[in-house]
Design goal:
alpha+beta, Trna Endonuclease, Chain: A, domain 1, 5-stranded mixed beta sheet, 5 strands, nucleic acid binding
């Protein structure tokens, strides 16, 4: 299975997992000039921007560690642009979560890092 397919499978698995945790999907794979946000979901009154990471090897740190400061800045800028185009969401609380899948051949056991980083 190629890397892109594994990544999409991990995103789909994360969506199912988070839906079971009562989060509601707003948008998937939002793209703009700054980057992409894998999942945008609502958790109660909060808007949650979610980065899904999958690592099949222990080299270079784990999946969560791969969300570097540079990647965080891109996600934050993308989220700010997303919110700027949706006035009804601008006054909502927001957070940035990471769903990490570590070293499995297939995504099975996510590690959910709520509020993984801040603006």
């Amino acid at each position: 299975m190629d890397r892109r397919k594994r990544g999409k499978d991990a995103e789909q698995h994360a969506l199912v997992y988070l839906s079971k945790q009562k989060l509601r999907l707003i948008e998937q794979n939002f793209n703009c000039r700054f980057g992409e946000i894998d999942l945008i979901m609502q958790d109660g009154e909060s808007i949650v921007f979610i980065e899904v990471r999958l690592r099949t090897h222990a080299e270079f740190g784990g999946a969560a560690a791969s969300v570097t400061t540079t990647k965080q800045r891109k996600i934050i800028k993308t989220a700010q642009l997303y919110l700027s185009k949706r006035p009804r969401l601008q006054n909502k609380n927001c957070r940035f979560d990471v769903i990490a899948y570590e070293y499995d051949a297939a995504p099975t056991h996510p590690l959910w890092y709520k509020d993984a980083f801040r603006i």
